[in-house]
Amino acid sequence: MSKFSGLRLWFLCASFILVLVLAGCAGTPEPSRATSPSVVVPTTSSAPVFEKITVVPLTRTPISTAGKALAADIMDIDQQNHRLYLADTTAQGVDVFDISTKKAVFLTVIPTSSGVNGVCVAKPINKLYAGLNSNSIAIIDINPASPRLNQVIATVDTRDNTRTDCISYDPVDNKVYAANSNNLVTVIDGTTDKMITQITGLGPGLIQSRYNAKDGYVYQNSAAQNVIIQIDPKADILVKKMDIVDDASPCGLAINPKTNVGLLGNTSFPQHLTFWDFASQKVKSTSDAAGGADMVAYNPVADLFFAACSRADTGPVMAIFNGSDEKFITNVPTAEGAHNVAYDETNGMVYTIDETPSNAALVGFPWPYKK
Fold first, then answer.
1. Closest by alpha carbon to 290, among 106, 50, 41?
2. Is residue 21 part of a domain?
3. Residues paired with residue 273 on neighbouring β-strands, in sequence order
4. How many domains does the chain have?
5. How many CB atoms within 10 Å of residue 340?
6. pLDDT for 311-355, tens place per residue?
7. pLDDT tens track for 263-308
8. Is residue 3 part of a domain?
9. Do the domain assignments include residue 261?
Protein backbone atom coordinates (compact mmCIF):
# COMPACT_ATOMS: atom_id res chain seq x y z
CA MET A 1 0.00 0.00 0.00
CA SER A 2 1.32 3.45 -0.96
CA LYS A 3 1.81 6.28 1.49
CA PHE A 4 -0.95 8.24 -0.27
CA SER A 5 -3.39 5.33 -0.03
CA GLY A 6 -2.69 4.96 3.68
CA LEU A 7 -3.37 8.64 4.31
CA ARG A 8 -6.59 8.41 2.31
CA LEU A 9 -7.77 5.41 4.32
CA TRP A 10 -6.95 7.19 7.56
CA PHE A 11 -8.93 10.26 6.44
CA LEU A 12 -11.99 8.22 5.51
CA CYS A 13 -11.98 6.40 8.86
CA ALA A 14 -11.62 9.67 10.76
CA SER A 15 -14.51 11.23 8.82
CA PHE A 16 -16.75 8.26 9.55
CA ILE A 17 -15.98 8.46 13.27
CA LEU A 18 -16.73 12.22 13.25
CA VAL A 19 -20.12 11.62 11.65
CA LEU A 20 -20.99 9.08 14.34
CA VAL A 21 -19.99 11.51 17.10
CA LEU A 22 -22.07 14.33 15.64
CA ALA A 23 -25.09 12.04 15.28
CA GLY A 24 -24.75 11.06 18.91
CA CYS A 25 -24.67 14.73 19.97
CA ALA A 26 -27.86 15.40 18.03
CA GLY A 27 -29.65 12.67 19.97
CA THR A 28 -31.52 9.61 18.91
CA PRO A 29 -35.09 10.29 17.69
CA GLU A 30 -37.77 9.10 20.15
CA PRO A 31 -39.88 6.23 18.82
CA SER A 32 -43.41 7.33 17.82
CA ARG A 33 -46.15 6.54 20.35
CA ALA A 34 -48.75 4.09 19.11
CA THR A 35 -52.34 5.29 19.61
CA SER A 36 -55.76 4.13 18.54
CA PRO A 37 -57.18 5.95 15.49
CA SER A 38 -59.53 8.10 17.58
CA VAL A 39 -57.00 9.11 20.25
CA VAL A 40 -54.69 12.08 19.73
CA VAL A 41 -51.78 12.82 22.07
CA PRO A 42 -51.23 16.62 22.15
CA THR A 43 -47.66 17.81 21.56
CA THR A 44 -48.03 21.52 22.46
CA SER A 45 -45.19 22.34 24.85
CA SER A 46 -46.45 25.77 25.98
CA ALA A 47 -49.46 24.37 27.89
CA PRO A 48 -50.08 21.37 30.15
CA VAL A 49 -50.79 18.15 28.28
CA PHE A 50 -53.95 16.46 29.51
CA GLU A 51 -53.97 12.68 29.75
CA LYS A 52 -56.03 11.74 26.72
CA ILE A 53 -58.05 13.39 23.97
CA THR A 54 -60.59 11.48 21.89
CA VAL A 55 -61.60 13.24 18.70
CA VAL A 56 -65.28 12.72 17.91
CA PRO A 57 -67.23 14.28 14.98
CA LEU A 58 -69.71 16.90 16.22
CA THR A 59 -73.28 17.29 15.02
CA ARG A 60 -74.40 20.91 14.54
CA THR A 61 -77.78 22.61 14.77
CA PRO A 62 -77.45 26.32 13.93
CA ILE A 63 -78.73 28.92 16.41
CA SER A 64 -79.88 32.19 14.87
CA THR A 65 -78.39 35.26 16.57
CA ALA A 66 -79.42 38.00 14.11
CA GLY A 67 -75.78 38.95 13.60
CA LYS A 68 -74.99 39.13 17.31
CA ALA A 69 -72.58 36.98 19.28
CA LEU A 70 -74.28 34.09 21.04
CA ALA A 71 -74.45 34.38 24.81
CA ALA A 72 -76.03 31.19 26.15
CA ASP A 73 -75.82 29.56 29.55
CA ILE A 74 -77.32 26.51 31.27
CA MET A 75 -79.09 23.72 29.37
CA ASP A 76 -81.39 20.96 30.61
CA ILE A 77 -83.34 18.08 29.05
CA ASP A 78 -86.86 16.73 29.39
CA GLN A 79 -85.83 13.10 28.84
CA GLN A 80 -89.38 11.79 28.47
CA ASN A 81 -90.49 14.28 25.81
CA HIS A 82 -87.10 14.57 24.08
CA ARG A 83 -86.75 18.32 24.43
CA LEU A 84 -83.57 20.24 25.17
CA TYR A 85 -83.89 23.72 26.68
CA LEU A 86 -81.09 26.28 26.38
CA ALA A 87 -80.87 29.57 28.28
CA ASP A 88 -80.32 32.08 25.47
CA THR A 89 -79.44 35.57 26.70
CA THR A 90 -78.93 36.88 23.17
CA ALA A 91 -82.47 35.94 22.15
CA GLN A 92 -83.88 36.91 25.57
CA GLY A 93 -85.60 33.59 25.87
CA VAL A 94 -85.28 29.82 26.07
CA ASP A 95 -84.32 27.91 22.92
CA VAL A 96 -86.20 24.63 22.42
CA PHE A 97 -84.74 21.70 20.45
CA ASP A 98 -86.26 18.38 19.42
CA ILE A 99 -83.68 15.70 20.32
CA SER A 100 -85.78 12.62 19.54
CA THR A 101 -83.04 11.55 17.10
CA LYS A 102 -79.25 11.92 17.12
CA LYS A 103 -79.63 15.09 15.05
CA ALA A 104 -81.17 17.90 17.10
CA VAL A 105 -83.78 20.11 15.42
CA PHE A 106 -84.42 23.70 16.49
CA LEU A 107 -88.11 24.30 17.26
CA THR A 108 -88.69 27.72 18.80
CA VAL A 109 -87.65 30.41 21.26
CA ILE A 110 -89.82 30.91 24.34
CA PRO A 111 -89.62 34.68 24.94
CA THR A 112 -88.91 35.97 28.45
CA SER A 113 -88.79 39.47 29.93
CA SER A 114 -84.97 39.55 29.87
CA GLY A 115 -81.91 37.42 29.19
CA VAL A 116 -81.91 33.91 30.63
CA ASN A 117 -79.11 32.40 32.74
CA GLY A 118 -80.24 29.16 34.37
CA VAL A 119 -82.91 26.66 33.32
CA CYS A 120 -84.21 23.66 35.23
CA VAL A 121 -86.70 20.99 34.13
CA ALA A 122 -89.08 19.97 36.93
CA LYS A 123 -90.47 16.91 35.19
CA PRO A 124 -92.90 15.68 37.90
CA ILE A 125 -94.86 18.93 37.50
CA ASN A 126 -94.09 19.54 33.79
CA LYS A 127 -92.61 22.98 34.34
CA LEU A 128 -89.42 24.71 33.32
CA TYR A 129 -87.90 27.32 35.63
CA ALA A 130 -85.67 30.02 34.13
CA GLY A 131 -83.47 32.47 36.03
CA LEU A 132 -83.50 35.92 34.43
CA ASN A 133 -81.24 38.96 34.32
CA SER A 134 -84.21 40.94 35.62
CA ASN A 135 -83.69 39.26 39.03
CA SER A 136 -86.76 37.09 38.60
CA ILE A 137 -87.75 33.52 37.74
CA ALA A 138 -89.93 32.73 34.72
CA ILE A 139 -92.10 29.61 35.06
CA ILE A 140 -92.87 27.90 31.75
CA ASP A 141 -95.44 25.20 30.96
CA ILE A 142 -93.76 22.24 29.20
CA ASN A 143 -96.70 19.81 29.36
CA PRO A 144 -97.18 18.54 25.76
CA ALA A 145 -100.91 18.20 26.37
CA SER A 146 -101.36 21.71 27.72
CA PRO A 147 -102.86 24.55 25.65
CA ARG A 148 -100.26 26.78 27.30
CA LEU A 149 -97.31 24.69 26.10
CA ASN A 150 -94.09 26.73 25.91
CA GLN A 151 -95.70 29.77 27.52
CA VAL A 152 -94.61 31.71 30.61
CA ILE A 153 -97.40 31.03 33.10
CA ALA A 154 -96.00 32.87 36.11
CA THR A 155 -93.09 35.06 37.21
CA VAL A 156 -91.53 35.31 40.67
CA ASP A 157 -89.73 38.55 41.53
CA THR A 158 -86.79 37.95 43.89
CA ARG A 159 -86.69 41.68 44.81
CA ASP A 160 -82.90 41.45 44.71
CA ASN A 161 -80.50 43.70 42.82
CA THR A 162 -78.47 40.88 41.26
CA ARG A 163 -79.40 38.52 38.46
CA THR A 164 -81.02 35.17 39.09
CA ASP A 165 -78.65 32.44 37.95
CA CYS A 166 -78.82 28.65 38.31
CA ILE A 167 -81.85 26.74 39.57
CA SER A 168 -82.46 23.30 41.05
CA TYR A 169 -85.58 21.26 41.79
CA ASP A 170 -86.31 19.15 44.88
CA PRO A 171 -88.88 16.54 43.73
CA VAL A 172 -89.47 15.19 47.26
CA ASP A 173 -90.54 18.50 48.77
CA ASN A 174 -91.71 19.91 45.40
CA LYS A 175 -89.64 23.04 45.82
CA VAL A 176 -87.49 25.12 43.50
CA TYR A 177 -84.24 26.78 44.62
CA ALA A 178 -83.01 29.78 42.60
CA ALA A 179 -79.71 31.48 43.41
CA ASN A 180 -79.15 35.19 43.00
CA SER A 181 -75.51 35.99 42.33
CA ASN A 182 -75.03 37.81 45.61
CA ASN A 183 -76.21 36.57 48.99
CA LEU A 184 -79.56 34.77 48.68
CA VAL A 185 -81.53 31.77 47.44
CA THR A 186 -85.23 32.08 46.62
CA VAL A 187 -87.48 29.11 47.43
CA ILE A 188 -90.60 28.55 45.28
CA ASP A 189 -93.56 26.21 45.83
CA GLY A 190 -93.80 23.92 42.80
CA THR A 191 -97.58 23.67 43.10
CA THR A 192 -98.58 27.29 43.59
CA ASP A 193 -95.54 28.91 41.91
CA LYS A 194 -95.39 31.34 44.81
CA MET A 195 -92.33 32.34 46.79
CA ILE A 196 -92.14 30.44 50.07
CA THR A 197 -89.15 32.22 51.56
CA GLN A 198 -85.64 33.47 50.89
CA ILE A 199 -82.49 32.12 52.50
CA THR A 200 -80.23 35.13 53.01
CA GLY A 201 -76.77 35.79 54.36
CA LEU A 202 -75.15 33.19 52.10
CA GLY A 203 -72.47 35.49 50.75
CA PRO A 204 -71.33 36.34 47.20
CA GLY A 205 -70.61 34.17 44.20
CA LEU A 206 -73.66 31.88 44.38
CA ILE A 207 -73.98 29.86 41.18
CA GLN A 208 -75.13 26.21 40.99
CA SER A 209 -77.34 24.35 43.45
CA ARG A 210 -78.32 20.67 43.38
CA TYR A 211 -80.71 18.48 45.33
CA ASN A 212 -79.01 15.38 46.74
CA ALA A 213 -81.44 12.45 46.82
CA LYS A 214 -79.02 10.51 49.04
CA ASP A 215 -79.26 12.72 52.13
CA GLY A 216 -82.22 14.97 51.23
CA TYR A 217 -80.28 18.24 51.40
CA VAL A 218 -79.86 20.99 48.82
CA TYR A 219 -76.26 22.04 48.16
CA GLN A 220 -75.31 25.46 46.82
CA ASN A 221 -71.79 26.32 45.73
CA SER A 222 -70.01 29.67 45.84
CA ALA A 223 -67.08 30.30 43.53
CA ALA A 224 -66.15 33.53 45.29
CA GLN A 225 -66.03 31.95 48.75
CA ASN A 226 -64.74 28.51 47.66
CA VAL A 227 -67.42 26.83 49.76
CA ILE A 228 -70.32 24.40 49.47
CA ILE A 229 -73.43 25.52 51.35
CA GLN A 230 -75.77 22.93 52.87
CA ILE A 231 -79.49 23.85 52.97
CA ASP A 232 -82.25 21.96 54.78
CA PRO A 233 -85.24 21.91 52.38
CA LYS A 234 -87.65 20.87 55.13
CA ALA A 235 -87.11 24.07 57.09
CA ASP A 236 -85.45 26.09 54.29
CA ILE A 237 -82.57 27.18 56.47
CA LEU A 238 -78.81 27.34 56.15
CA VAL A 239 -77.24 24.32 57.86
CA LYS A 240 -73.56 25.06 57.31
CA LYS A 241 -70.90 26.37 54.98
CA MET A 242 -68.20 23.84 54.13
CA ASP A 243 -64.78 25.11 53.14
CA ILE A 244 -63.61 23.15 50.11
CA VAL A 245 -59.98 23.77 51.17
CA ASP A 246 -58.74 22.68 47.73
CA ASP A 247 -58.46 25.75 45.51
CA ALA A 248 -61.48 25.01 43.32
CA SER A 249 -63.61 28.20 43.01
CA PRO A 250 -66.37 26.07 41.48
CA CYS A 251 -69.05 27.31 39.12
CA GLY A 252 -70.63 23.92 38.47
CA LEU A 253 -71.85 21.17 40.79
CA ALA A 254 -73.07 17.66 39.92
CA ILE A 255 -74.01 14.86 42.32
CA ASN A 256 -74.14 11.07 42.00
CA PRO A 257 -76.58 10.18 44.81
CA LYS A 258 -75.69 6.50 44.63
CA THR A 259 -72.10 7.12 45.71
CA ASN A 260 -72.85 10.43 47.48
CA VAL A 261 -69.99 12.04 45.58
CA GLY A 262 -70.11 15.22 43.53
CA LEU A 263 -68.00 16.82 40.82
CA LEU A 264 -67.08 20.50 41.07
CA GLY A 265 -66.69 22.64 37.96
CA ASN A 266 -63.40 24.26 38.94
CA THR A 267 -62.31 27.62 37.55
CA SER A 268 -59.03 27.85 39.49
CA PHE A 269 -55.39 27.57 38.42
CA PRO A 270 -53.46 25.38 38.06
CA GLN A 271 -56.29 23.71 36.21
CA HIS A 272 -57.83 20.61 37.77
CA LEU A 273 -61.19 19.15 38.79
CA THR A 274 -62.35 18.20 42.28
CA PHE A 275 -64.59 15.40 43.57
CA TRP A 276 -66.41 16.11 46.83
CA ASP A 277 -67.56 13.44 49.32
CA PHE A 278 -70.87 14.59 50.83
CA ALA A 279 -70.75 11.96 53.58
CA SER A 280 -67.38 13.03 54.98
CA GLN A 281 -67.90 16.63 53.82
CA LYS A 282 -64.46 16.95 52.35
CA VAL A 283 -62.54 16.48 49.11
CA LYS A 284 -62.39 12.85 48.01
CA SER A 285 -59.96 13.30 45.12
CA THR A 286 -58.73 15.68 42.46
CA SER A 287 -57.88 15.16 38.80
CA ASP A 288 -55.49 17.14 36.64
CA ALA A 289 -56.87 15.44 33.52
CA ALA A 290 -58.86 18.60 32.69
CA GLY A 291 -59.81 22.00 34.07
CA GLY A 292 -61.20 25.43 33.29
CA ALA A 293 -64.76 24.12 33.69
CA ASP A 294 -68.12 25.77 34.11
CA MET A 295 -71.22 23.56 34.04
CA VAL A 296 -70.86 19.93 35.10
CA ALA A 297 -73.45 17.16 35.06
CA TYR A 298 -74.03 13.60 36.23
CA ASN A 299 -76.35 11.23 34.37
CA PRO A 300 -77.53 8.05 36.16
CA VAL A 301 -78.44 6.14 32.98
CA ALA A 302 -74.96 6.58 31.52
CA ASP A 303 -73.40 6.60 35.01
CA LEU A 304 -71.02 9.31 33.85
CA PHE A 305 -69.82 12.70 35.02
CA PHE A 306 -69.37 15.39 32.36
CA ALA A 307 -67.37 18.60 32.79
CA ALA A 308 -67.69 21.32 30.17
CA CYS A 309 -64.14 22.70 30.19
CA SER A 310 -64.46 25.61 27.78
CA ARG A 311 -61.39 27.34 29.26
CA ALA A 312 -59.08 24.33 29.32
CA ASP A 313 -55.45 25.18 28.62
CA THR A 314 -55.39 22.85 25.64
CA GLY A 315 -58.62 24.25 24.15
CA PRO A 316 -62.32 23.56 24.87
CA VAL A 317 -63.01 19.94 25.84
CA MET A 318 -65.71 17.83 27.45
CA ALA A 319 -64.08 15.83 30.22
CA ILE A 320 -65.74 12.48 30.94
CA PHE A 321 -65.41 10.44 34.15
CA ASN A 322 -66.92 7.18 35.42
CA GLY A 323 -69.76 7.81 37.84
CA SER A 324 -69.08 4.79 40.03
CA ASP A 325 -65.42 5.44 40.86
CA GLU A 326 -64.71 8.91 39.39
CA LYS A 327 -61.98 7.53 37.12
CA PHE A 328 -61.05 9.70 34.15
CA ILE A 329 -62.07 8.34 30.74
CA THR A 330 -61.13 11.00 28.17
CA ASN A 331 -61.42 14.58 26.93
CA VAL A 332 -63.48 15.25 23.80
CA PRO A 333 -62.63 18.49 21.92
CA THR A 334 -65.72 20.68 21.61
CA ALA A 335 -66.03 24.29 20.41
CA GLU A 336 -65.54 27.92 21.35
CA GLY A 337 -67.53 28.84 24.45
CA ALA A 338 -68.72 25.27 25.07
CA HIS A 339 -69.24 25.76 28.80
CA ASN A 340 -72.51 23.86 29.28
CA VAL A 341 -73.58 20.22 29.01
CA ALA A 342 -76.57 17.90 28.97
CA TYR A 343 -76.88 14.19 28.21
CA ASP A 344 -79.71 12.68 26.14
CA GLU A 345 -80.46 9.27 27.63
CA THR A 346 -82.45 8.00 24.63
CA ASN A 347 -79.83 8.50 21.93
CA GLY A 348 -76.71 8.61 24.08
CA MET A 349 -75.83 12.12 22.91
CA VAL A 350 -73.75 14.68 24.79
CA TYR A 351 -74.78 18.28 24.03
CA THR A 352 -73.04 21.63 24.43
CA ILE A 353 -72.79 24.81 22.31
CA ASP A 354 -70.53 26.59 19.85
CA GLU A 355 -70.42 30.35 20.46
CA THR A 356 -68.21 31.11 17.45
CA PRO A 357 -69.37 34.46 16.00
CA SER A 358 -71.60 33.99 12.92
CA ASN A 359 -71.47 30.20 13.40
CA ALA A 360 -73.39 29.64 16.64
CA ALA A 361 -74.84 26.19 17.09
CA LEU A 362 -76.00 23.48 19.43
CA VAL A 363 -73.35 20.80 19.02
CA GLY A 364 -73.39 17.18 20.12
CA PHE A 365 -71.58 13.88 19.94
CA PRO A 366 -72.53 10.27 20.79
CA TRP A 367 -71.05 8.66 23.87
CA PRO A 368 -69.86 5.99 24.14
CA TYR A 369 -68.42 6.68 20.71
CA LYS A 370 -68.00 3.88 18.18
CA LYS A 371 -66.10 4.85 15.06
1. 50
2. no
3. 287
4. 1
5. 23
6. 999 899 999 999 999 999 999 999 999 999 999 999 999 999 999
7. 999 999 999 999 999 999 999 999 999 999 999 999 999 999 999 9
8. no
9. yes
